[in-house]
Structure formats: structure tokens, C-alpha cells
Sequence to fold (111 residues):
Amino acid sequence: MNDPRDGDDPSDTAVVVVTDRAAQRAKELGVTEALEALRTELEHRPRLGRHIRTVTEGGQEVEAYSTRIEGSPAADRPAVNVVHAYAPAPPWPPTVRIAAVVPEDPLHRQP
Fold:
């Protein structure tokens, strides 16, 4: 039996949006294409990543997740963490909001 909360039912796709600030930050960091790939994946796997917390506002449950996008030295693309909020249905359709794109601090090597 499919649990409607598992996000793996192919007929159950979420509407995924990127906030203006997250899109701007992705552009500044050069990770726009990687963020778009993640956005597409979240349509079918909205619970992707590390669960941060769940809150209830006005009777609506919202789950916060953090997902890491690997960096690529060849493409001069830094590793980033993306924070997204998932509001499972109801109301329909389930929605995901990509809210933040944060670069990872580079490793500091000792001389």
C-alpha cells in the first residue's frame, strides 16, 4: 500500500518553486544549472535530503530539509547546501519551496 506521505508515488508530484533570493544566490555562486536539476528531482522526491525539523502552522504541516550539491573544481562550482520546505498535501497539490542556497566554507589547509 502506498503511503501518500512517502513522496515516491510517481503519480504524486509536488509543485516546486525557487524563491527569488535563492535563485539570485545560485546565480551569484554559479550553481543555477545544479539548482534546476535539484528542483526537478524534488518534484518526485520532495523529502530528499536531511530532515531538519517539522513545524505546524495554521493546521498545515511543513517539513524543512537540507540537501548538499557537490562542488566541481573543473566547472569552478562550489559545493552548496540548499534548504527547502515541503508542505505535503492536503491542500493539494503538495508544494516545495527552495528557500536558501548557502556555499560551504572551503577547507583551510595548514602551511
